[in-house]
Specification:
Layout: H1 9-12, H2 27-37, E1 39-49, E2 52-63, H3 66-71, H4 85-111
Antiparallel strand pairs: 1-2
C-alpha cells in the first residue's frame, strides 16, 4: 500500500530525506570510528558567589574501545574489584594473607613465644 504524496513533486524535492536513508555514514560506522580512534570530552563547571568559589566540578569523558584504551595506558577496570573477577580474587588473596599474618602475631603474643618490643 502506498500513500500519496501530499506535496507537489517540485516542493517535495526540497525536503531532506528521512533519517537513516541516503549514502551518509550510519550509526555503526560512526561508533566504529569513535571506538577505533577514541574521543575525549573535557569540561569544568565552577559555581562562584561574590568571588568565592563554592563548587568546582571537573568532567573528563573518554570514549574508546578497550584495545585503544589499553594503548593509551588506561586499564583501571582490570584492578577494580567491582569490575574484574581477577582483581577481586587478588584482593581476597591479599586480605587473606594479611589476616593470617595478624593471627600469627596474635597467637605468638598470646603464647609468649615472642617478647613484646619496647621502644
Amino acid at each position: 500500500m502506498t500513500t500519496p504524496n501530499r506535496f507537489p513533486p517540485e516542493r517535495s524535492a526540497r525536503f531532506p530525506e528521512p533519517y537513516g536513508s541516503g549514502s551518509g555514514a550510519n550509526l555503526a560506522d560512526i561508533l566504529e570510528r569513535v571506538l577505533d580512534k577514541g574521543i575525549v570530552i573535557a569540561g569544568d563547571i565552577r559555581i562562584n558567589l561574590l568571588d568565592i568559589e563554592l563548587l568546582t566540578i571537573k568532567l573528563r569523558l573518554i570514549v574508546a574501545s578497550v584495545d585503544k584504551a589499553k594503548e593509551m595506558g588506561i586499564d583501571w577496570w582490570e584492578t577494580d574489584p567491582a569490575l574484574s573477577s581477577r582483581a577481586r580474587r587478588d584482593e581476597l588473596t591479599r586480605e587473606n594473607a594479611e589476616l593470617r599474618e595478624r593471627l600469627a602475631r596474635l597467637e605468638e603474643l598470646e603464647t609468649g613465644h615472642v617478647r613484646e618490643e619496647t621502644s
